[in-house]
Amino acid sequence: MRFRLIFTLPLTLLATFLHLGCCLLPLLSIAGTSLPYFDLFARYKTTFTVFQLLVTMYLLGKIILDQTHIKPFCDARERVIHWIGVAIAVVGLTISYYEPFKSEDQQLAEQQFLRFKSHRQMDIAISGDYDHEKLLNDLAEIKGVKSNRIQISDGMVALTFQSSRTSRLEILENLRSKGYVVSD
Question: What 3-state DSSP class applies to 156?
């Protein structure tokens, strides 16, 4: 009897904490991504996500055991509670993944990161005679080249382009097709 009690009590406490976790973790995930004083939760977001996945797998495992009649639930109430727990855990994981409750600073930081991620710098050496204004216009006509970020000085061109719209090779080929002698 005591032997069963020794193993039953910790398992019961673990199951209780797992059930609490499946209900509280989605709320903590939301709080961690939207409120400034809960940045601790955002810092340990990966840990919370792993814990939520474990809770979801535990609950799904219990439901599968019930559905296959290997270890059925005691009553319908327990079955409903487990299904609600799975729904809450899945919603929490979805919220944690898509982060719909981002602060304005987080949204601006993400936009800046995406902009920096898609922009590339390029230096081109141009030899021979060329018209400064014509070269500037030719570069500005290339789709994806930022016309306000072109600098030409002493046979060197420094420019910024969007990697999603053009590539280094396309820019060089375009300039060569217009008669410029360029090297990367």
Answer: strand
